[in-house]
UniProtKB/TrEMBL annotation:
The keyword Protein biosynthesis applies. This is Peptide chain release factor 1-like, mitochondrial isoform 2. It comes from the Eukaryota. InterPro entries: PCRF, Pep_chain_release_fac_I, Pep_chain_release_fac_I_sf, Prokaryotic/Mito_RF. Keywords: Methylation, Protein biosynthesis.
Length: 234
């Protein structure tokens, strides 16, 4: 599953020019989670459709009988509220520091550089240990916290707005899979619009097929928005 996670992350890394990639590894060397900071004009509008549960179907290299294994991973797309008046009361925060874990040498293991911030009213947690500097980790953790709180607000508003129609596109609902990567069939299928592409290798390189699929999702989201407006006027 580790190599699949890396491949899926590379889809976004290769397909977008303005980004900063950060990754966190388990002690065993496997990839536990990875994050990428993506910038540019309307980056969130373009990337928000990737949020949700992604299903992977493949035959692992260690599978001797050729059986297909199914696994899932969750992609979260968090907008950065740079122009949003999001006020966070410092009294609502609990900030803890600890020693960073994982690879990084002696310095990482002997200094309290890792930062964990808890927003007490909501229970939202943000952590960062990528940098050696505690100050930089605190700034990054705070930036992630703001993004998570803003995303939480967006989800609440979106849920209220689309509750009657239960629109899946753009709501970042994670209760059901949104996409399947089937390696034996060389197929990627987006279940929200029932669209399949039979060139998984090219898609995983983050090239034009990703843009094609995202554009189809945008078109469908616009179509659903028009239907909602019409239904409200009837």
């Amino acid at each position: 599953m580790v190599e699949v996670m890396v491949s899926c992350l590379n889809v976004y890394i290769n397909g977008i020019n303005n980004k900063r990639t950060l990754s966190s590894q388990c002690l065993q060397g496997g990839l536990r989670h990875a994050s990428a900071s993506i910038g540019g004009s309307e980056a969130y509008k373009h990337m928000k459709f990737e949020g949700g549960v992604h299903r992977v179907q493949r035959v692992p290299k260690t599978e001797k009988q050729g059986r297909i294994h199914t696994s899932t991973m969750t992609v979260a797309i968090l907008p950065q509220p740079t122009e949003i008046n999001l006020v966070i009361n410092p009294k609502d925060l609990r900030i803890d520091t600890k020693r960073a874990s994982g690879a990084g040498g002696q310095h990482v293991n002997t200094t309290d550089s890792a930062v964990r911030i808890v927003h007490l009213p909501t229970g939202v947690v943000s952590e960062c240990q990528q940098e050696r500097s505690q100050l930089k980790n605190r700034e990054m953790a705070m930036k992630k916290l703001r993004a998570k709180l803003y995303s939480l607000h967006l989800e609440e508003e979106t849920s209220k707005r689309y509750n009657a129609r239960k629109v899946q596109v753009g709501t970042k609902g994670r209760s059901e899979k949104i996409r399947t990567y089937n390696f034996p069939q060389n197929r990627v299928t987006d279940h929200r619009i029932n669209k399949s592409l039979y060139d998984l290798g090219t898609f995983m390189q983050g090239e034009y097929l990703l843009d094609e699929l995202v554009q189809s999702l945008k078109d469908y989201a616009n179509y659903e928005s028009v239907l909602e407006i019409i239904s409200q006027k009837i």
